[in-house]
Design a protein that fits this description.
Arc Repressor Mutant, subunit A, ArsR family transcriptional regulator, three-stranded antiparallel β-sheet, WH-like_DNA-bd_sf, transcription regulation, 101 residues, DNA binding, alpha+beta, 6 helices, HTH_ArsR_DNA-bd_dom, globular
Length: 101
């Protein structure tokens, strides 16, 4: 992980909604227990939209930023997109950040 990549990851965490999304995805059964599909798929983008109270396009942009930074991954099942945390990447980021500070 280079300095530029680390900077991009830090930028991805700079918005409170993106930090909220990562927090919700940490324990999806607590925050999205009403999802009809198995949570093993991840969390449906529509439920994340609802939880934030923001427009679909705004939430999609936040999810894309988190995905580009490597913090989340997506899986398409039928017409739905599901998102889950990439805990290995998050841990690697935290380790690298700790080394830098």
């Amino acid at each position: 992980m280079g300095v530029t990549e680390l900077d991009e990851m830090i930028k991805a965490l700079s918005h409170p909604v993106r930090r909220d999304i990562l927090n919700w995805l940490k324990q999806p059964s607590q925050f999205f227990s009403d999802q009809e599909h198995p949570l093993s798929f991840g969390v449906c983008a529509g439920l994340i939209d609802q939880k934030t109270g923001l427009s679909q396009s705004t939430v999609s942009a936040h999810l894309a930023t988190l995905q580009r930074a490597g913090f989340i991954s997506s899986k398409k099942v039928g017409q739905w997109n599901f998102f889950s945390r990439n805990d290995a990447a998050i841990q690697q980021f935290l380790t690298r950040l700790n080394e830098q500070l």
